[in-house]
Amino acid sequence: MPLKLKKSQTHSEPSSTKDELSGPWGRINPEPQAVVVLRLCKKTSPSSEETHSYPYRSLSCWHWRGGVADETLEIEAGSDLVTVTGRGLERLVEALDRGTLETLCEFPKEVSVEESTAIWVSEIKVTHESEA
């Protein structure tokens, strides 16, 4: 007598988690407290990029201003002040709180952005204490 194959009782769900955790704006690690360094990728010209990396232990505080067209997120990292401008930044604040924000990348307005993209980073500005 042949064996009958048993069909799974649960249907597989499409993975929308990946869309929430990564995109042209950067990446959030799904594991809490898994990230040791926050990497910021800033466009210096259309063909070049500048990268700043900060150990999480150097991040002292962050402040988010939402409810406006261009939200801002200010992160104090050692003696630097990092100002992130964009939309959907509240999700990044949550990731900072959990220690899961891994990478942030500028994604200028000139580049086509899908309206469904929840997070979008239009500018990353790094101000060093000596410049303030």
Structure in words:
With 132 residues, the chain is mainly beta. The chain has one domain (26-131). It contains 2 helices and 9 strands; from the N terminus they run H-E-E-E-E-E-E-E-H-E-E. The chain has helices at 17-21, 90-98, and strands at 22-23, 26-28, 37-45, 48-55, 59-65, 71-77, 80-87, 101-105, 120-128. It has a 5-stranded mixed β-sheet. Strands 5-6-7-9 form a 4-stranded antiparallel β-sheet, covered by helices on one side. The longest helix has 9 residues, at 90-98. The radius of gyration is 19 Å and the shape is globular. The relative contact order is 0.22.
Radius of gyration: 19 Å
Overall average residue pLDDT:
81
Strand order of the largest sheet: 1-2-8-3-4
Please give the largest β-sheet: 5 strands, mixed
Low-pLDDT runs: 3-18
- Global morphology: globular
Range of strand content = 35-45%
Which bin fits the share of residues in helices?
Answer: 10-25%
Query: What is the terminal-to-terminal distance?
Result: 81 Å
Short note summarizing the structure:
This protein is mainly β and 132 residues long.
Features:
132 residues, mainly beta, 5-stranded mixed sheet, globular, disordered N terminus
Task: Summarize the helices and strands and which ones pair or pack.
Layout: H1 17-21, E1 22-23, E2 26-28, E3 37-45, E4 48-55, E5 59-65, E6 71-77, E7 80-87, H2 90-98, E8 101-105, E9 120-128
Parallel strand pairs: 3-8
Antiparallel strand pairs: 1-2, 2-8, 3-4, 5-6, 6-7, 7-9
